[in-house]
Amino acid sequence: MTMDGDWLQAAFGALPARSQRMIEDRALGKTLGSIGQEHDVTRERVRQLLLKAQEQLCASADVFVDDWRDRLTTLTERSAVPQSEVAAVLGVRDQIGVGSLVEAVGAEHPLTWAGRLRGWWTRSPGALEVLLRRGMEEAPLRGEDVAVTFAAAGVPDEVPLLDLLGHPDSPLVPGFEGTWLRRRARGRDAAYLFLLANGEPCRAEELLTPTGIRRKPAVAEALRRDERFVQLRLEGKWALAEWPHLNITPYPNAMEAFVAVLTELGPLPKDALFVKVGERYPVTLWRLHQCLLDDRVGITEDGLIELVARGATPIEESEPVQPARMAVDPAGNVFGVRLTVDKDVLRGSGVVVSSWLTWQLGMRQAPMARTFSIAGHPTPIVLKRATSAAQISSLRVLAKKNGMVGGCEFVLFLRTDDSTARIEHACARHTCPAMSEPSRIEGGA
Q: What are phi and psi for residue 250, nearest 5 degrees?
């Protein structure tokens, strides 16, 4: 019988209605005791009814699927198998009854720090968490490295990694720009990834926002206790101990090394330029690509990278993908950015946004800035485009003025024809955090 004539659906439908409900409740994670209370029977009676129903489903499987026990036994030797894959082996649609059959070969839901991973099966319930913790050993992680890191550790591709990582009992916590940090070292891990991406030493105060640490002395003390960091005594800046160019490079940052190479060697192909800059100032490939957006750097007619001062055409970044939380009206005049009042907003930090916004506003090189006035507010909103990111100036006062607290949603509207801005509180009234925590924004200052 094929999926069009689903034998398991028919077999499940032939079970007594009470047995069907018990199987469904069990699949939701309810205990035998709680199911017994709902049906006014003992825990042992629930177990007996579930076992009898399982035997009936297994008898149907014996009729329709050859060697199904052996096939499921082999399949569930893996650390985690999605139930849809079990259903495919049985030749049926993914449904509640699949669980009863895979349990018959000794499989159960994999264990994780977030509890049982429902919808997945294995005969080695502890194996998945071992693989997950193996991936954890590579933390801290950039967002783009998460999937590759855990795949290399052996975690199956379809496992809901982000749900597991975001669980309150996860050893990792989310950081800036999609990073994942060790819970017990989140500040130092954030500093490490920020420096790695930035590619050049930073002062302690520049690390306040990415680390979430409130005071400059606390940043310095945290980094001083971590062997991954060193302080450059003459400048007072913090750097990564793994950088080989420390104390020997004459360049204060990657961009100055970039310009120096072009000044001395003239126009170069992009790959050759990156090699030469890397020899003088080792930095990530991501940072080198960002340097191409600097307003001092351009491209010649024959595709070489050269200085704008020597006739090269400035390089504009290609159009980024439009984020789901940004929109523009059909006339291209009013842009809307949906934001959340998070810790950065509460602290009064600048808000990093997608460069899609600055690209649409014609800010396709760096550094560039544009201001937007807001009625009744003396300080304009400033949108900046640097080589590394786009950022909106602090919105804390405006959020407070509009009665918002941590967790509130709001939309920032930017009007291009008259360079004005306004914000609107976007929470639904019945779910708005401000309705239950009216003083929270003062506490986050």
A: -85, 0
Task: Please say if the pLDDT value at position 179 is more than 50.
Answer: yes
Task: Provide the token pair at 345.
Answer: 């907003």
pLDDT band of residue 5 (cuts 50, 70, 90) is: low
Residue-wise pLDDT tens digits, 138-154: 999 998 899 999 999 99
CATH class of 326-443: mainly beta
- Distance of alpha carbon 155 from alpha carbon 167, whole angstroms: 17
CA dihedral 252, 257, 259, 263 (to 10 degrees): 120
What are the domain boundaries of the chain?
A: 3-121, 254-314, 326-443
| HSE-up (13 A, CA, CB side) for residue 16 | 7
Q: What is the pTM of this model?
A: 0.54
∠ CA 210-196-298, nearest 5°, is 105
Q: Where are the alpha helices (DSSP H) in 97-239?
A: 97-103, 127-136, 146-152, 161-165, 186-198, 208-211, 216-224
pLDDT digits (tens, 9 = 90+) for 378-388: 889 999 987 66
3-class DSSP assignment, residue 307? strand
